[in-house]
Amino acid sequence: MAELVLKADAAGDLTINRHIYGHFAEHLGRCIYDGMWVGEDSDIPNIRGWRKDIVDALIEIRVPNIRWPGGCFAEEYHWRDGVGPREERPKYFDEPNTVGTAEFMDLCEILDTQAYLCGNLAGGTTQEIVDWLDYIRGAGDTPMANLRRSHGRNEPWDRVKFWCFGNESMECGGMMTAEYFAEHFRHIASNVGGVAKVACGPNHENYVWTEKVMRIAGDMMDGLAMHYYTIIGPWANKGDAVDFDAYEWGRTMAKVWYTEELVREHDYIMSRYDPDKRVGLVVDEWGTWFNRPDDASLCWQQNTLRDALVTGTTFNIFQNHCDRVSMANIAQLVNILQALILTEPGDGRMVLTPTYHVFNMYKVHHDATFIPTRLTSEDYTFETHDGGTARLPAINTSASRDADGTIHLSICNVDPDRAHTVSCALQGATVKTVCGTILTDDAMNAHNTYDDPTRLTPSEFSGATLDGDTLTIAMPAKSVVTLALT
Hints:
Immunoglobulin-like; 2 domains; alpha/beta; 9 helices; six-stranded antiparallel beta sheet; eight-stranded parallel beta sheet
């Protein structure tokens, strides 16, 4: 039995930032075109060119921010190619520039969300970034603000709260050294105001990058971006998104649990230069990455119950480190990697994935007060590649209290074979009623399709019983649960 203590009486004023539940929409594969964007003249119902069913789904989960236009695409993107009359915009081999600044900012207004823009440091200039920001936010009589007005938008957009400088600058984003990047960032940051400035951070366990960038430029930044994907095999054979076995399930859960170590170690280094934790760790690319089918578009993959457990476990880790993790962005929204939504070109149907449903189950934690917990879990034991065994905690959890006083407890059982019981001591909380939702299935690879779009959706959870100040939770194998305690 897992032993959990929910320390409601130890909750302070630490908040779980809703931006931890951020998203990423890159001009890659079918994320934007033949995905989210269909154009105003499409037979598929749309709102100013954006698919209405996708817009409705994103409003439902209260999308807090969207990272755009990349990713790798941002490393070669020049914003002036995507402004002005669409018919006059330059068209490249795989990029028509139909969706540019105005269209994306329009989406942010439709969704009532914030834009998280990524500036081009690999091939752009400081002036280009300064001009782009003035084009979007400028209210005065400036060349860029007047250019925006000439394109039909008189008032500035007020949806740009975050700006990232560089994408994987140590590798494909410029092959920069940490020292060079940090000095370059200081120069750019000194010329930009009015947004939270996020510096390109490490990939995975590149602790040297974090140390050098924080030492040189930590005083100039509001966030440090980190990327981490749960890739379970060599790059050429990352495993199948649907046809996997118990070994690959265990390997995936071990990889996602490594997020805990990464966050903890990068936090430790950041705290040398920022002990007050003013600079947030921004995990602005995370998620699963498997092989795509031969007939699929770039980076398309199906999404199963395994992805749902990755999502819930990742959120529990982020929430338990919300003193440092201030924002995160799953890769990506539609049709790319661990997507929330799947579509096909010209097809009016769409599929909400298991990952989407976990986002919906966890939205109760947005901007809620963090409640610390203490957990002792039974082990989940699985086979390793050399025939040995490895162990992970079978259960992981996180908790919060919302503005109305309701306590929400989210629990994941990553063990694909065994149910686990959680005995939860409610410390400093008077609870009279318990209700909740669960996402689970008998099959590890359960997923939703166009023919069966609701195969895997949340249902009412009846496995929690209350006896005084003790809550007993019967967690089925491979399940995600969120409880409301009132």
